[in-house]
Amino acid sequence: MPDMTSLPPIAILGAGSMGGAILQGIIASGRDGGVTATNRTREKAAAFDGVAGVTSIALEERPDGNADALAGAKVVLVGVKPAMVPDLLREIGPSIRPGTIVVSLAAGVTIATFESILGTEVPVLRSMPNTPAVVGRAVTGLAAGSAVSDEDRALVRSVFETCGAVVDLPESQIDALSTISGSGPAYVFLLIEALTEAARGKGFTDADARLMAEQTFIGAAALLDATGEDPAELRRRVTSPKGTTERAVAVLADAGLPALFAEATDAALARARELATGA
Ligand SMILES: NC(=O)C1=CN([C@@H]2O[C@H](COP(=O)(O)OP(=O)(O)OC[C@H]3O[C@@H](n4cnc5c(N)ncnc54)[C@H](OP(=O)(O)O)[C@@H]3O)[C@@H](O)[C@H]2O)C=CC1
Ligand SMILES: O=C(O)[C@@H]1CCC=N1
Fold this sequence. Notes:
The protein contains twelve helices and eight strands. The chain is an alpha/beta fold and 279 residues long. The longest helix has 22 residues. The radius of gyration is 21 Å and the shape is elongated. The protein binds NADPH dihydro-nicotinamide-adenine-dinucleotide phosphate (NDP) and (2S)-3,4-dihydro-2H-pyrrole-2-carboxylic acid. NADPH dihydro-nicotinamide-adenine-dinucleotide phosphate binds next to helix 1 and strand 2. Its EC number is 1.5.1.2.
């Protein structure tokens, strides 16, 4: 039986692409115990106006909104851009009550940076979710700082489990995970865009090109999900010996696709290390 116990009250400071995706995942799970979301502008806050269980605050209307959001929250998700994290932590530090758990969504920013501003007694975790949280299919990496108890960690894990799968890992591996699953949806969408472009190039209408490319990705992912088979075996079943797919796959293999992904993820990792220094 799925766990339907209510989550504690949660604050999401910065409910944009990622914080907003988690918010939607939590609400869709039906397990929310009340979520307060803040954004700078009214335009962004409006996305969650009227959503049951959500209090959506625009800081341009309510400048103390972040502190207000913290008032009743047990878990605080920090969802602003990495460069904005230190200023936000300095702002909210005085409002953090004993027992409040702070969880970063930010790429690169270390637990040590959080602790240097909030104090080492505040429980801090780093998470690295991805946007399929919206549909409950996220992968979230979770790393805990030294002030985090087993109970805190289990609670935060249960928050992210409403949005999909959770991988516990040491902080030293979270940037590497980010290059795979954090950024990964973008790689998949890029591949879909490229296949759509190839279809347009073969004379298909925009609508047909999109349908062919998008439904092929969705169908292939659903097949993988439903069968649990090795992707290499599923690929083999499409690739008839001396057939057409074999020729196409040979072109992609000759282009060094695995090496390209290794290079791309290395570049993402290097950027995460820059972000850690505030660059
Ligand atoms: N996008 C993704 O797929 C992923 C992102 N992340 C991380 O999530 C974080 C947010 O990224 P993303 O969601 O893409 O960025 P967005 O710009 O979409 O979201 C950031 C949000 O923060 C709001 N904001 C700005 N300043 C404040 C403030 N002082 N207090 C409260 N809210 C504020 C912004 O509101 P407004 O627009 O009104 O200014 C905006 O809605 C980053 O640290 C990123 O590394 C992690 C994993 C995946
Ligand atoms: O691009 C970024 O920096 C964030 C982290 C992973 C996905 N988006």
